[in-house]
Amino acid sequence: MLIIYLTLVFILLLVAIVFIYYQSHKLVIKKYTIKNKEILNNSNEKKGIKILFFSDLHIGRTLKKDKLKKFISYLASLNADLYIFGGDIVGDNINKYYSISDVKECFKPLANKCCIAVYGNHEFKEEKNISIVLKKEYFNAMGFNTLVNEEFAFFKENKYILIYGMQEYIYNEAKFPNRAYDLIICHEGDIIERIDNQILLAGHTHGGQIRIPFLPYIYLPKYGKKYVSGLYNVNSSKAIISNGVGCNKINIRLFAKRDIILINYIK
User: Fold this and answer.
1) pTM, whole model, 2 decimals?
2) Distance of alpha carbon 104 from alpha carbon 138, whole angstroms
3) Rounded CA gap, 220 and 189, in Å?
4) Could you give the percent of the chain with pLDDT greater than 90?
């Protein structure tokens, strides 16, 4: 009887380990169509501007060079018209596992693409083993056009979209848009309550990262406590919140799979 019991326990533990590994490493592509300020989960609409949004890489101990290279090459293979990074390239011990030239090398597949980015809170968080200046050097090594409370116009043939990139909101002053834009980009999603008639792309929450069904979230970061993952309608605005790609300290996810967002933007 004891042998049967121990065998069952072993099988259950093995199943749990495999399940957690799958949840932690599976990458999901979430697709949306945006047309006339409306967001559709799937649509047979014509092709517009193809936008790829990804966030929260946290490169370092939990996302090393070989995996980052493969991921960036995969992003490039999707042939988006515009790539948008939602902040937080900095991860645990980034300067131990990467040099600035390492980051440049990893992002080479996107060198000829149109890429923009906004900062995340980890680019400004005070840490003992790395300065804020060095963190920004890592961020800049991606080679993206970084938006700090400023707009960016993207053109494709006879179509264009106007984007506003906000500064991250925890350690800095984010200036809220004073006009209508096609997209707002900000690291923290809870700011959606302070903007009207806009569409926001954000990350920051990791989708809760470790979630137990039917129970409250174990941890959610500041300004990421209300809008955690997926699509939200908030007053006159809408938000798409990405679960992000990486993990900072603990490289485990449960019911919060890594994701990237693909948008077909039709004007």
Assistant:
1) 0.94
2) 9
3) 12
4) 78
